Amino acid sequence: MSRSALQWGLLLVLALLLVAGGFALRSLTRLFQEPGAEPVASLVGTLGAKRVLGVFAHPDDEQLVTGLLVRAKQRDGAFTALVTATRGEAGRQSPVVARQSELGAVRHAELLKNGFALGVDVQEVWQYPDGDVPSVPLEELIARIEAAIARHEPDLVVTFWPESGATGHADHRRVGLAAETAVERLVARGAGPRWLVYALTPREALARMGGPRGAELAAATPDPTHRMPGEIDTKLRGWEIHASQRDFVRETYGVPARVLYWLWDEEFYRVVEP
User: Fold this and answer.
1) What is the pLDDT along the chain (274 residues), one digit of tens a residue?
2) What is the 3-state secondary structure (H, E, C) of the chain?
3) Single pTM value for the model
């Protein structure tokens, strides 16, 4: 074979590899898409909300809604508040940055620092037992969330979808159920927010990459109504701020956070008017 023919052969092989890689990349990217959802630049701005309250379970749960929070503040000038039910004291450090007995205090501080970086106006960090929120009487949790809504007067509350909790975590599901119930009861009394928003995980990614449990969670996740940019650089900064959880994405999903968010570059929400 001539040198010229060998060169052309190598170029052909390289071209075929690139084409195959392109198809594989598109297939992988599609796992993190929800094309049926309406694309918006800012969910809060699109709805016209002026005051936002996030209700979540752990420090770093706000990483799921960085795009919503940042754009609500920077683009729309909305008031934002964040309630976190636990201090994350039962979490696994990744990497280890402190004595485990002091992890709750460390993660509490990380949460406050990241909330400040996101422009959150007010943060409340409660001290329910990390990993055991379902043991808290549901009525107690509902009443406390109702009181937080009364304090911050949001017209939009964002939380977990109770059936899946984004990741299936029992704490997430319990907090989502309590927040949903609190909003519905307040609305029934004419005192609640206008919008209840659920932060969702892309279903194809759950179903294809999460094993049998992921398939169950995907089936329990509803259709999102909206999708918006996820502010990826802000998410990456957030994992640096959450230093005790900095390597969580890589250790959990097997890829660096930058790679995951390169694929999962949007946030997905289901909006309801109770």
Assistant:
1) 555 544 454 554 455 444 455 555 567 889 999 999 999 999 999 999 999 999 999 999 999 999 999 999 999 999 999 999 999 999 999 999 999 999 999 999 999 999 999 999 999 999 999 999 999 999 999 999 999 999 999 999 999 999 999 999 999 999 999 999 999 999 999 999 999 999 999 999 999 988 999 999 999 999 999 999 999 999 999 999 999 999 999 998 888 999 999 999 999 999 999 9
2) CCHHHHHHHHHHHHHHHHHHHHHHHHHHHHCCCCCCCEECCCHHHHHCCCEEEEEECCCCHHHHHHHHHHHHHHCCCCEEEEEEEECCCCCCCCCCCCCHHHHHHHHHHHHHHHHHHCCCCEEEEEEECCCCHHHCCHHHHHHHHHHHHHHHCCCEEEEECCCCCCCCCHHHHHHHHHHHHHHHHHHHCCCCCCEEEEEECCHHHHHHHCHHHHHHHHHHCCCCCEEEECCHHHHHHHHHHCHHHCCHHHHHHCCCHHHHHHHCCEEEEEEECC
3) 0.91
